[in-house]
Design brief:
The complex is a heterodimer of chains A (about 140) and B (about 170). Chain A is built from two helices and four strands, in the order H-H-E-E-E-E. Chain A is of the alpha+beta class. In chain A, strands 1-2-3-4 form a four-stranded antiparallel β-sheet. The longest helix of chain A is centred in the N-terminal third of the chain and has 50 residues, at about 10-60. Chain A starts with 11 loop residues before the first helix and ends in a 5-residue tail after the last strand. In chain B, a hairpin with a 5-residue loop joins strand 1 (about 70-75) and strand 2 (about 80-85). Classes of the chains: A alpha+beta (about 140), B alpha+beta (about 170). Chains A and B meet through helix 1 of A and helix 2, strand 9 and strand 10 of B.
Chain lengths: ~140, ~170
Amino acid sequence: MKQGRNQSGFTLMEAMMAVFVLAIAAAGISMAFAAAGTVQVEAQRRVLASRLAADLMEKISGTDYGLIQATYPVGHSVTAAAMGNTGDAYANLSCSVVANNNIEVSSGGTAVKLIQVAVAASYGTTEITRITTLIGDKDKD
Amino acid sequence: MNRFYKHKQSGFTLVELLVALMIAAIVLAAAATMADALACGKETCDRMSRSTSYLLQIQTRLSDLIMRANAAAISLEGNLTLGYDTNDDGLTDEAVIVSKDALSNIITITENGIATAYTYQLKNQAGEYQNAQSNVVFGYDGNKLVTVKFDLTENSVAQTHQVCAALRGK
């Protein structure tokens, strides 16, 4: 460099280190935003999955009592699309019947026959939610 | 000139200034791109949670209406009428009409003569609010199951949602 100049700026090393630190900070911040997006997607998936499970349960309780066990045996599985829900938010979502048992409870000395049905909603193979309900024979009482 | 030359100058040279300016421009451009991406992401998340909440709201409302009903019918216009037996005499005493507008975009629930319209609007790419709900279809299987199907256009992609509920009233 020119003689007689008394420069006292940043050295290249210092400047590079500053840029490096800044880059790490920026990456950290953007990672937090990306995580927020993932949480949002997960939240929506859970809402849609529980809606699907509730819808299938409604379909089952809307079926005539005598036909429930034959129509919805354990393992009966439907995709979101087959239930009329389409769009990328519903991709890989499905629900299936995981339990369908006859149970008998005594109520005031008389035995009441009920069907216990459990429905699970899954994303791919991961189960997200499960609901269980008891269905009685409405036309009988 | 010579008089100035004797002073010890300690400013930036033109080249240094240009280099600094260029680096600043690059950094600013990167920051602007990132800020834009973040804003876009925020908007997308916002729309998503709006449509999810709307979906839950309309589902809760419709399921409640359908589950309490004892009878359902679909009119020629495709609207849904739900009947209620309020005094347990086995007959239908009250009716609630769930209708859609001529374009099948808006669901209106008419209960006790009071109509509540469910308009669901989202900002489009141009920043204007427009109806995001479309293709409303009511269905009834003739037995117990009532379905309401509609599309919600979220981030320019239409998603078809279906709400199912069984009539439980006696």
